[in-house]
Amino acid sequence: MHLTTLETPCLVLDKAKLQKNIRNLNARMKALGVNLRPHGKTAKNIDVMTMALEGQEGGITVSTLKEAEYYFEKGITDIVYAVGIAPVKLPRTLRLMDKGADITVLLDSVEQVRFVAEAAAEHGVTVPALIELDCDGHRSGITLEGDDLIAIGTLLHNEHGVSLKGVLTHAGESYQCRSTEAIRAMAEQERSMAVACAEALRASGLPCPVVSVGSTPTSNFAQDLTGVTEMRAGVYMFYDLVMAGLGVCDEGDIAVSVLASVIGHQKRKGWVITDAGWMAMSRDRGTSAQALDQGYGRVCGADGEPLDDLIVSGANQEHGIISDRNGKKIPWASCGIGSMVRILPNHACATSAMYDRYHVVDASGEVVDTWHRVNGW
Ligand SMILES: Cc1ncc(COP(=O)(O)O)c(C=O)c1O
Asked: Where in the numbering of this chain does the D-serine dehydratase-like domain appear (predicted)?
């Protein structure tokens, strides 16, 4: 069955590109001597994660408890839930631990230590925790300034029901870098900050076995990971236009695309209308601040080859508007009504989240599998 027989819009995953992306980062981490703890939030699928875990120690990162439950059911036990813990999520976390999952939670306040400790001690278990560090002002986490690090670390070490496992940081600001030199510097900033915090904990007599860092840009550009025990990344499996705009990958490396049908022409305006609006692409406009704004996505033919300079320049709920980014003439013959295009997404996680499955294709466009996703919370 060829992909052009699929009903549109739908999500297509190029297996060969996926495998290549995974192998490349695995090899990079091997060369740097660090374990990769792949992030399950991009694929939200066990087949992809099984590939990503090849040659690694076996632990994963997740962004929701739904992912944690799903991956655990599929046989993965070592799971870092890398979003700050809230009281309401503890009963589910503890239930998962009762079943045998080795869940590590993330926190950056004394309040969180206290409520985790109380719930865990009452339940008769010990919950391991990582302290979230803010290495770049991106969002949450603590810095070396002040007493927070040692205060949280000491409490985690001493309280019943919790244990101090180490530190974790995510250089999310690397997405805003404008050069590969800047990403390289960000990777070093991420590493050195995490290592400095680990050393500060150890100097206070506290254990810090885990030093966890990571993002797709920094994992691709880190030159040295001395002191780091694990790298986390998720987008690298699929890549996307934001990563291509950053110079982390080429457009040709992007493994995930949206298959859409051409449903109309507005020849006077130079528009091709498709059935892939923002419900199919997501509202993510991550390339809007980059040097090359890709609209809602870069347009390729059904064979996956880019079509001139076509992008999805506009999107309504179920309508996509394709035009040439430079106002050049549309290759109408390649965009006949009823024909299909493949659109590369700005942000692989956001676009994939609009779908419940991947149609897995080989390089010739034959559908070789269907892989389901675990969406929601
Ligand atoms: C805590 C954490 N670690 C790792 C990652 C993975 O980074 P990327 O999405 O760049 O692959 C993310 C992404 O949001 C994250 O929030």
From this structure: 255-362
